[in-house]
Design goal:
Elements (H helix, E strand, L loop, with lengths): L5 E7 L10 E6 L4 E6 L5 E5 L15 E8 L2 E8 L6 E7 L14 H8 L14 H19 L7 E9 L5 E3 L5 E9 L18 E2 L6 E3 L5 E4 L9 E11 L6 H14 L4 H6 L12 H12 L12
Parallel strand pairs: 1-7
Antiparallel strand pairs: 1-4, 2-3, 2-5, 5-6, 8-14, 9-13, 10-11, 10-14, 12-13
């Protein structure tokens, strides 16, 4: 069990009025674990980074945690680095208009800071990184990477798919890959006029059993109907599939690409130029080396005919 580390915050309007029942989120940027609690009648809220029910992985000296508040038109975010010899952090937060709390999936903010040997703004106001700006830019980079290869690199995504069928075919391709699980595979013997689609009349569809009625390849999305009694007829949307897809762990090359691309996207901002002076004069429109690197990495995750590498 981790030793206690308390984060005590008081939330106020710019006028100084304490805010009751306002949600506050604290996120450990080293573990990407977060907890949201509401303030009491005095505008106060207490977190414990060492409490397993709030932060299962605990804390360590050097970890950075962020605190984020969003209330009507007012918001605030800040970060703090845990130092040796202190087990408490107390702050009065006066709300202003700043970005809300997004989150990253392919890399942790701490990994970005370690990669470029940077500090957060609160520890180095001359050259430090503002955590919310890093996370917002990183979110866009992550989305771009996943859109290019039409896949996901974490395990939080669900999908539903209606596939056109042919009475002579028993093999079909699911487009959302790699598949983590299939929760529903269903066919119908009705034509389109009787049963337009799955949601229109679920009772007219038969749910199939994995291993008995069908088999599938999680990596390629190849699904084969093995029970002739449930072979689809020729029609539009004759096969319904639902499940989850993505990856349980982020591949190392994708993590590195996301960190590097986020850094390059931040290159135009004055604070990143100051902290990475060797890159200050780089023409971001002519980063051929990075385009080639990005294409090579994402090429490993391209499916035939799926996605485009617009570098």
């Amino acid at each position: 069990m981790a030793s206690p580390y308390s984060v005590a915050l008081k939330i106020q309007y710019p006028s100084g009025t304490n805010l009751n029942n306002v949600n506050v989120t604290v996120r450990n940027e080293a573990t990407n674990e977060s907890k949201t609690l509401a303030t009491n009648s005095s505008g106060e809220v207490m977190f414990n980074l060492g409490q397993a029910s709030q932060f299962p992985s605990g804390w360590a000296v050097g970890h950075i945690f962020s605190y984020i508040v969003s209330y009507t038109a007012f918001e605030f975010s800040g970060s703090h680095t845990i130092v040796s010899g202190k087990a408490t952090f107390t702050r009065t937060v006066v709300l202003i208009s700043v970005p809300t709390a997004p989150s990253l999936r392919l890399f942790k903010p701490q990994e970005f800071l370690d990669f470029f040997n940077l500090k957060i703004y609160e520890d180095d106001q001359a050259n430090g990184i503002k955590m919310q700006q890093l996370v917002r830019i990183g979110e866009g980079v992550e989305l771009g990477i996943e859109n290019n290869v039409d896949t996901k690199f974490d395990s939080t995504y669900t999908f539903t798919e209606l596939i056109d069928t042919n009475g002579h075919d028993d093999i079909y391709l699911i487009s959302k890959i790699p598949i983590l699980s299939l929760t529903t595979v269903a066919t119908t013997q009705n034509d389109e006029g009787t049963t337009p689609d799955y949601d229109n009349n679920i009772a007219e569809w038969t749910s199939l059993t994995d291993g008995t009625d069908y088999t599938y390849n999680a990596e390629t999305g190849r699904l084969q109907i093995t029970n002739g009694s449930y072979m689809p007829i020729t029609r539009k949307n004759g096969l319904y599939v639902a499940g989850t897809y993505g990856r349980t762990t982020v591949p190392v090359d994708i993590k590195t690409l996301a960190i590097l691309e986020t850094g390059l996207m931040m290159l135009g901002a004055s604070f990143i130029k100051a902290t990475l002076p060797e890159f200050a004069d780089v023409d971001t429109k002519n980063l051929t080396w990075f385009k080639n690197y990005r294409t090579a990495v994402l090429g490993h995750y391209m499916s035939d005919g799926v996605g485009t590498l617009n570098t």
